[in-house]
Amino acid sequence: MRNIYKTVLTGVLLVAFSFTSNAQKSLKFGHINSNDLLTIMPERDSAEAQLKIFAQELELQLTKMSAEYEKKYTDYQANVSVMNEVVRASKEEEILELQKRIQDFQQKAQQSLQKKETTLMEPLIAKAKKAITDVAKENNYSYVFDTSIGALIHYPEGDDVLPLVKTKLGLTQ
Fold first, then answer.
1. Grouped pLDDT means (10 residues each) for the chain, 173 residues
2. In this structure, are residues 32 and 144 in contact, taking their beta carbons and an 8 Å threshold?
3. Residue 113: how many CB atoms within 10 A of its CB?
4. Do 66 and 103 meet the contact criterion of CB atoms below 8 Å apart?
5. Between vectors from CA 54 to CA 52 and to CA 55, what angle results, nearest 5°?
6. Domains of the chain: which residue ranges?
7. Whether 83 contacts 91, CB under 8 Å
């Protein structure tokens, strides 16, 4: 009876070991520097050229506003001693409003430039991500890491363990 028990136990362990060793062999890791990939994609040059033109347009507008500010400020300084109280206050208010408009424009221009960059780069990034995923699947990579940002790009479907961890920590939301 003990021999049968040992034989069955040995058989079960061998089967379990073969599954474990097959699972370990099937895991394949890869890595890529996505910045290097994006740099060599031809679409990047076009996107960068469009972004540069857009940035130059914004800079030109800012230069015009700054020139207007400089002119008004220089005029104010040259004539402040001969201005009456009402004119001086009006000129100061005008200069401060122009200064605020310039600051607002700079902030909006920066946001607009970032939005334009995102719009131009999203299709390129999506194309690169799809190519990475396709290559990973075709070459049986289980995991592909992006070395430029330290992120996992491709991975097999799995269970989201967040609900289990929240329960473990006693978090209800």
1. 44 43 68 89 93 97 97 95 95 97 98 97 93 89 86 74 74 69
2. yes
3. 15
4. no
5. 65
6. 2-168
7. yes
Non-local CB neighbours of 137 within 8 Å, separated by 6+ positions: 154
Q: Quick check: 153 and 130 in contact, CB under 8 A?
A: no
pTM of the model: 0.67
If DSSP states are collapsed to H, E and C, what string results for the chain? CHHHHHHHHHHHHHHHHHHHHHHHHHCCEEEECHHHHHHHCHHHHHHHHHHHHHHHHHHHHHHHHHHHHHHHHHHHHHHHHHCCHHHHHHHHHHHHHHHHHHHHHHHHHHHHHHHHHHHHHHHHHHHHHHHHHHHHHHCCCCEEEECCCCEEEECCCCCCCHHHHHHHCCCCC
> Please, are residues 146 and 31 in contact by the beta-carbon 8 Å criterion?
yes
Whether the Cβ atoms of residue 3 and residue 90 lie closer than 8 Å to each other:
no
Backbone φ and ψ for 145, nearest 5 degrees, come out as -100, 145
* 8 Å CB contact between 133 and 154: yes
